[in-house]
Structure formats: C-alpha cells, structure tokens
C-alpha cells in the first residue's frame, strides 16, 4: 500500500506548480532549490505518516500476544518509513523531469509495472538478495532471526543511498529543467495529433476530444496506454488456456528459449480445452463493452449540459437528429479500437481450434458490437433531448 499510494501523492507536487504557473514565482523568492524540494516532500509525506502510525497499537498488541519483541516492530515500521521516503524521492525526481502531473504519476506507476513484470518474466527463478528485499528483511526483523541486524543495516544504507541520490538529482535539476520546460514546446508523438475535423464536427469531437472514457478522470490516461491495457488483459487470460491446451509444456519451452519447440507444441494442442476459455472471454467482452459504451452514451448529452455547451450546440444549424447521429457515430468509432485490441488475443486463442475457433470468435465480436447501445436509445439522452425538459432547442428561422 505504501508503494502504491506514495507516487500518487508525491509525484504531482511540482506538477501542480508548473500547471498553475506558480513555480516561477517560487524561484523568485529567497527559497533555495533544496528548500523547495524538501518542503514539498515533507508536506506530501506527513499525511501519509498518519495511516502508518495508526497501525502501531495493533502491531504492538499482536507482537506482545505472540511473545515477540516490540523492538522489532518499531524497526520494521522505521524500515517502511524509509521505503516510503525512497519512493517519494524517486517520485519527486520524476516530477522534475516531466511537465504535467498526469505524466509524472503515470511515469511512476509505469516504472513500477515494468520492474515487476521484468522481474517475474525475465528473472522468474532468480529472486532478489535478502538484503535488497524489504519483505524478507521485515520478516527477519519481526521473527528475530539470527542475521537480521546486518541485513537491516545494509538494506537501510542501500535504500538511504538511493533516496539521497534521487533527491540530490531532483534538487540539482529543479531550476534548469523547469526553466527549460517553460521555454520549450512540448513534443507530441505523431499518433497524438488529431485528424482534420471534416464535415462531421460532432462525431469528431466525440471521438478525438471526449473519447470513450466514461469518467472525466480516466481521460488523462493516454490513448495508447489505454489500448495497451485493453490488449494486455485478454492476452494474459489467453496465455494460460494455451499452456493448458499444450499439456502444460508451453511455459517451460518459452522459459528455456525454445521457440521452435513452443511453435510445434501449439500445433498439437487439444482444441477442446480452449472452447470454455473462449466463451468466457466472449462473455466478458459483451458484458464489459455494453456497460462501458452504455455509460458513455448515457453521459454524452449530460456532459454537454454540465460543461454548458449544449445550448451552444443546439443553436447551430444542426438539427437534434444530426447531433444525436454524430454522437452515435463518434462513440461507435471510438469503441472500435478497444474492440480490436481485445479481439486480437481472443482470435489468437481461437486459432488453436482452427476454422471453428475463428468463427466462434467472430460471432462473439459481432455480438459485442451489435449489443452496444446507441445514444438515441438511452433514457438519459432522451430526457435531455426532450424539448419539454430542456427548453427550446430549435433555432429561429
């Protein structure tokens, strides 16, 4: 919980100042770089200390009832606090290098996910040394094992060094990096540029500006990252039945680097072991896609009312039917990319069953696309589009 919560709290400390344009005002004061960084760090860490300290009475009671030494509990809490400070220092360094708060938070969590996946995939049989694993040291401290003190000191020194290096880099690069970011224009990937608006502005806005995210806070996630997450979930689900269909030898061949043997094992799979997982993936696609698009369709016009843009939209030469049709096309086109990203692993799993599997996967994908609701059919949109509720929508002739 500490590792998960600390980046979300500390990574945006400098990002908010950059977005509000108040970081340059801080540079104009007599505060030094280390005072700004340390002050921001302590200001964000103090609220996180209270949940940690709130667990002390329960830990002490459990330690006393278990016949263990309370000193080990306090040392374990001290180690957790040090881990929190180290993660916060790395988050502050990320906040210095990035321009926006969302980029800093996403960079922190992406780094954690990459390290975790890399450790599990690349080094599955090579665990971390005991003096580098906080969980191992915590267990040895609480249980009072024989060699816990040297490992505790070595890990404390290592974590302290990493945290000090991150904070030193953040302090050193604070002013140069932030001043350079103020002068430079943010670079964008080619895929981030939007297509021309064309003759269908409502559909273009629903697809490129609003997107498919049903909640406003989800729209800060980049599109490529959302598609990667949509693709990763069915890919992870499809790997396990593929291994089961090959007689549980696919994993061992991949870990050994025998790609030829893995390809041959896929060719002799048992098709009957794939059908049940394919059905589960299809049901998840239909239910999840229907709920997601349904929520997005239900909020399509209420979001316009919340932003106070619905009155401006209906005053244009577009009729209500054209507005609703543009919203429908924009939402459905925006839903095509996640649908394809989810369907690719499903079709890959269906390939183990041959033509029958492809037909089954195509049927599930078609049902998911047909089951998506339309904005004109949702009760919320009909209520908002009703002139008796929202007033006069038709412009004067």
Provide structural commentary.
This protein folds into 2 domains: 2-187, no CATH class; 201-390, no CATH class. α1 (2-10) runs parallel beside α6, α8 (134-143) packs antiparallel against α9 and α11 (223-245) runs parallel beside α17 (320-350). Mean pLDDT is 76; it is low at 382-397. The protein is mainly alpha-helical and 397 residues long. It contains 20 helices and no strands.
Considering the chains and any ligands shown, give keywords for the structure.
397 residues, mainly alpha, 2 domains, disordered C terminus
Shape: globular
Largest sheet: none
The secondary structure category is mainly alpha
Helical content band? over 70%
Write the element-wise H/E pattern from the N-terminal end onward: HHHHHHHHHHHHHHHHHHHH
Number of strands: 0
Unreliable stretches covering 5 or more consecutive residues: 382-397
Taking all residues together, what is the mean pLDDT?
76
Tally of separate domains: 2
Put simply, the count of helices is 20
Give the distance, in angstroms, between the N- and C-terminal Cα atoms. 61 Å
- The gyration radius over C-alpha positions equals 27 Å
Residue fraction in strands: under 5%
């Amino acid at each position: 919980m500490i590792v998960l919560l600390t980046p979300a709290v500390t990574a945006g400390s400098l990002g908010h100042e950059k977005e509000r344009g108040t970081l340059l005002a801080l540079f104009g004061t007599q505060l030094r770089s280390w005072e700004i960084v340390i002050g921001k760090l302590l200001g964000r860490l103090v609220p996180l200390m209270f949940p940690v300290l709130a667990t002390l009475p329960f830990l002490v009671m459990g330690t006393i009832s278990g016949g263990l030494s309370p000193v080990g509990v306090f040392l374990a809490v001290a180690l957790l606090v040090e881990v929190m400070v180290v993660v916060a220092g790395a988050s502050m360094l990320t906040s210095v290098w990035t321009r926006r708060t969302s980029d800093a938070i996403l960079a922190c969590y992406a780094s954690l996910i990459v390290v975790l996946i890399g450790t599990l995939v690349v080094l599955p049989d090579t665990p971390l040394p005991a003096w580098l694993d906080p969980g191992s040291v915590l267990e040895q401290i609480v249980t009072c094992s024989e060699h816990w003190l040297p490992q505790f000191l070595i890990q404390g020194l290592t974590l302290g060094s990493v945290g000090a290096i991150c904070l030193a880099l953040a302090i050193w690069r604070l002013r140069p990096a932030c001043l350079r970011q103020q002068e430079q224009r943010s670079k964008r990937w080619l895929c981030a540029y939007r297509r021309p608006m064309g003759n269908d502005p409502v559909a273009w806005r629903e697809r490129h500006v609003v997107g498919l995210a049903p909640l406003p806070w989800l729209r800060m996630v980049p599109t490529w990252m959302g598609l990667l997450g949509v693709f990763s979930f069915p890919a992870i689900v499809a790997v396990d039945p593929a291994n089961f269909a090959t007689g549980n030898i696919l994993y061992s061949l991949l870990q050994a680097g025998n790609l030829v043997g893995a390809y041959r094992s896929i060719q002799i799979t048992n098709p009957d072991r794939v059908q049940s997982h394919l059905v589960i993936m299809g049901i998840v696609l239909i239910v999840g896609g229907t709920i997601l698009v349904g929520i997005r369709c239900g909020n399509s016009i209420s979001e316009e009312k919340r932003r106070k843009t619905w009155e401006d939209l209906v005053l244009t030469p577009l009729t209500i039917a054209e507005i609703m049709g543009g919203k429908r096309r924009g939402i459905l086109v925006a839903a095509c990319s996640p649908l394809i990203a989810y369907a690719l692993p499903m079709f890959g799993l269906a390939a183990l069953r041959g033509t029958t599997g492809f037909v089954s996967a195509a049927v599930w994908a078609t049902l998911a696309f047909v089951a998506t609701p339309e904005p004109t059919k949702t009760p919320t949109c009909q209520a908002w589009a009703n002139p008796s509720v929202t007033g006069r929508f038709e412009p004067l002739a």
